[in-house]
Amino acid sequence: MVNAAGKFGPYGQPAPASATGVHDARVLPGRGQTGAELVRSRIALQVRLTSVSPGDRLPDAGVLAEELGIGEITVRRALEAMCQDGLLDRRRGRTGGTFVAQGWDTIVPALYDEGEAASLSAFHLLLECGLVAHAAGEVPAGRLGGLQALVDEMDQTEHPGQLLMLETRFHLDLAEALGGAGVRELTADLLGRLCLVQPTPHLDVVRARNRCHADLLTELGRGALDPAVQAVKAHQNTHPG
Ligand SMILES: [Zn+2]
């Protein structure tokens, strides 16, 4: 296609690239993240899931590249950028490598972005409502057993990190139970990004949300679509109070 200026490419001037730095919350984020963003969000998710902790050594770039299905050079650049942000530490020498920074929990709040958090949360809500509606009345009884075990475990734990880890696992496993492995990956993208842009929810909020988890499983189990969707929405609307 040739535009009015006689050149290939889009008509007119490209839209200014977010000159104000304000994220447009009307644009719903999908899987559109770059390789570097994928590295970032997956490392953040693994920290939330306590698969790695501050001070732990990360797998080599080649291993990460293979696991994420992206190029090793992209992984190296992403790790370098995370080092510059203070999220990771590079150490040289025989015991060297790339480590999760000891100060991870104090660095992350500098990255909070209310607009992006609202946008990601809105998309996650739509995704879960859609999954619940899609699966309504067709969830085999045994499929929800693992999710119920997570709800029970959340009720019993006093440990904040454990509670947040179980909260995240619930939503990943819910996505897989209702939508399959691909939807789990999409959910992992969203939740990993949220770990970096949204303040950690207050533990009382997470406990209240666990009541919504329990309600959701009950309603899914009896195939009640409207109450199940209401439980998903109530989860999102749980705030400290
Ligand atoms: Zn939850």
- Outline, from the CA principal axes? elongated
Topology, number of strands: 2
Number of helices: 10
Low-confidence stretches: 10-26
Catalogue the ligands.
zinc ion
Q: State the fourth-level CATH superfamily of the largest domain.
A: GntR ligand-binding domain-like
- Write out the strand line-up for the largest beta sheet, numbering strands in chain order: 1-2
What is the architecture of the largest domain at the second tier of CATH?
Up-down Bundle
Order of helices and strands: HHHEEHHHHHHH
In terms of quaternary structure, the protein is single chain
CATH T-level topology of the largest domain: Four Helix Bundle (Hemerythrin (Met), subunit A)
Q: Number of folding domains?
A: 2
Terminal residue distance = 56 Å
Query: How helix-rich are the residues, as a percent range?
Result: 55-70%
- Strand % is under 5%
Question: Could you describe the largest sheet, including whether it forms a barrel?
Answer: 2 strands, antiparallel
Computed structural class: mainly alpha
Protein name: FCD domain-containing protein
Region (Disordered): 1-20
Keywords: DNA-binding, Transcription, Transcription regulation
Domain HTH gntR-type: 33-103
